[in-house]
Design brief:
alpha+beta
């Protein structure tokens, strides 16, 4: 389900997100869901062999997580809903290694069964809500102001395992700048000190 397309010098599919790209190079990766299974937490150390129902190779989710895990300075997340523990664990791990993690989400979805928003807040991650009768329906993340992760993919186990979803990962600067600016606009607009329910001023 993983497809990599690179403009300029060809890069392997296993290219580390932490490598510095050459100036004229644009890195694009397209992921498709559903995955056959969630990744095994034991990886190569799993002793269950063929009886293990989890995935031991690369999947769309493991590629998605690799990009989130590459964050060193900042990770700005703007998503409709987060219920996939593997993804929320990656956000908490980023916070714990000193990355500035900020999350914007939909207020109604944050109250739904299985939502990980409370867990993220308990870990010290600041989360802001739209507090609107309409949906904050974005599904993107900006990693170190360098990569954008965006697509139809909701950050849920149902989306990982059941839904037909897509994610595009790119370091095209014009795209990254646009998403970073939109995140900054919403982050300011949803400041609980100034935000009035249901209204977006900027």
């Amino acid at each position: 389900h993983t497809h990599t397309h690179n403009m300029g010098q060809c890069l392997s599919e296993n290219r580390a997100y932490t490598e510095a790209p050459q100036q004229a190079q644009i890195y694009n990766e397209v992921l498709f869901f559903p995955d056959r299974a969630l990744p095994c937490r034991y990886g190569g150390a799993c002793r269950r062999g063929n009886s293990c129902q989890y995935a031991h190779g690369e999947t769309s989710l493991t590629r998605f997580l690799s990009c989130l895990n590459s964050a060193r300075k900042s990770l700005d997340v703007c998503v409709f809903t987060i219920t996939c523990n593997e993804i929320s664990d990656a956000l908490v791990a980023a916070k714990n290694r000193g990355v500035l993690v900020r999350v914007i989400s939909d207020d109604e979805q944050s109250k739904s069964t299985g939502s990980d928003i409370a867990t993220l807040r308990q870990s010290g991650i600041e989360v802001r809500m739209d507090n609107s009768p309409y949906h904050m329906h974005n599904k993107f993340a900006v990693v170190d102001n360098r990569f954008v992760v965006n697509g139809s993919f909701n950050w849920t186990r149902g989306a990982v395992l059941n839904n037909r979803e897509n994610v595009v990962i790119t370091d095209a600067q014009v795209v990254c700048q646009s998403f970073a600016q939109e995140f900054a606009r919403l982050w300011t607009a949803y400041d609980p000190k100034t935000h009035r329910n249901g209204e977006l001023y900027i």
